[in-house]
Amino acid sequence: MSRARMLLRTLGEDLRTVIERDPSVRTHVEALLHPALPAVWTHRIAHRLHRRGHRVPARALMVLVRSVTGTEIHPGAELGRRVFIDHGAAVVIGETARVGDDVTIYHQVTLGAIGWWHDNGRPEGERRHPVVGDGVVLGAGATVLGPVTVEAGAVVGARTFVVKDVPAKARVLARATTSGPPRQTPQCAIELLRHTASAGSW
Q: In the chain, where are the structural domains located?
């Protein structure tokens, strides 16, 4: 099968995936109006340009689509088949991130690097962003930073902060505070800032 036909098949799968996973969408015409679908489709083209060394046109395409959809995917990132980004608003996927097949990503999810102060010291070509396995669900506002792996079938709950590997089929949830304001020392605040200041950096 030619590369063009493979790309068209993948784009068709993306369209059907929107219908299958978004209960508010019932037809192919409605699916074409899904807010995040243009970001996924454009990325698939930009990624091919990026791999062929056309970095500037690839980046330009993704900057344009970000201004329209609010979804920011670096053209170097790898997206598997049938990836579904629901809503798309404020989703950030960094350059060396790898996302498997049948992954569901809700709004405000970040697959980012730890920060330039840490990553600039890495050897050239070393991964800075997460690997997300097949069938993973990333809840709204989830943040996954660094070269960690979220293995197949795992669920990362809404607003969960992940900086360590997540085993296959695990359920990772943010802890809720039920009484009083959280206690936080100045050092805790500094460490939190260190990890989140550049969350989502390319």
A: 3-196
